[in-house]
Amino acid sequence: MNRTLSALFSALEAVIVVGIGLAIPLLPLTVLWGAQYGFAPDWTIFWRIAADAWLLGHGTDLTLTLDPVTAKSLALVGAGTPFVVSMAALGFALLTIVLAHRAGRRIAETQHRLLGEIVAVLVFALCASGIAVSAGQKLAEPNLAQGIVLPTLVFALGLLIARAGALPDIARGLSVELRTTIGAALRGGAVAAATIATIASLIVIVLLVGNYAQIITLYENLHSGGLGGFALTIAQIMVLPNLVIWGVAWLVGPGFAIGTGSGVSPLGTTLGPLPSIPVFGALPHGDFAFAFVGLLVPVLAGFLSGAVLRGRIAELIGPMNRQAWMLAAGLGIGIVGGASLGLLAWASSGSIGPGRLQDVGPDPLAVGLLAALEIGVAAVGGLAAAARTGRKS
Length: 393
Prior knowledge:
14 helices; 2 domains; mainly alpha
């Protein structure tokens, strides 16, 4: 495949990634436009809503200005003045990363991989620019610079993950001990973070199923109709990754907030007035007698990561200074795991409305530091326990 074909192929891959992401909000909104509104309103209104959702899902700040009637009905301080919505619906970003990773794998099969990746990023940035410019309107104005840069960075991250196989070549010049320790820290930290996120996902599913009646009641109170309810459901599905990360913050300890002055953590739950968003009906209310047991999840995740990796580390590192390298690996696991969860907590938090709703989600610094401590100390313990077990056997 020559350079021109490689560039065209890569450009098409980028356009497909953008198209799939935009289609998720745009298709149900277009159906709503025809079936419920009889094609009467200008379709560009629905395009702008879909574009705003896509941009917001990639971290772009959106400045909203409510009409007086809607602002009065919300009964929130500051609803009558423009306010910023900054909490990303991370389902869009996750989808872009997954699709970009697949695109990166296909681009890697061409003869001009680097050229293809550069073209794909540039085309994606061009598409994001068009979306950001066309999305602007009086009532909802996205940050233009963020709308171009942030989605492109998310797409580039997916391509970078597809290139992860090249990392061993970069580390070839390092010593065996340092290379092994860094590799163990990256793998162990990622596994620990993924384990905690998996447990959090299961908890979210249990809460959604257990509070199904409350969620349906909130749907009925909105009177959004069948198509409107479908569009609302799509929007909430794209926020599910945020809820999972909030569950991670709960397991780590700091928990999360739904408005200034509120808090949901193992130590207790304090919730003020909540927006009438059906999925919020799954939030736990009250205190749980054994909630502190959840704090064992990051500890066990770190311990198991250290115990599983100990044999691999001992195999590659000689007996000299082995304990020091083991300690470094355990602490590295904690740093990688804590940094990963802290960044996810940062990405999942922000503002969803005026007044007290400007503070929603977990505290990323608290989540990152506490997770690093819990995972790191437990990983060191797992490495030490595995060492003692190996000597006995």
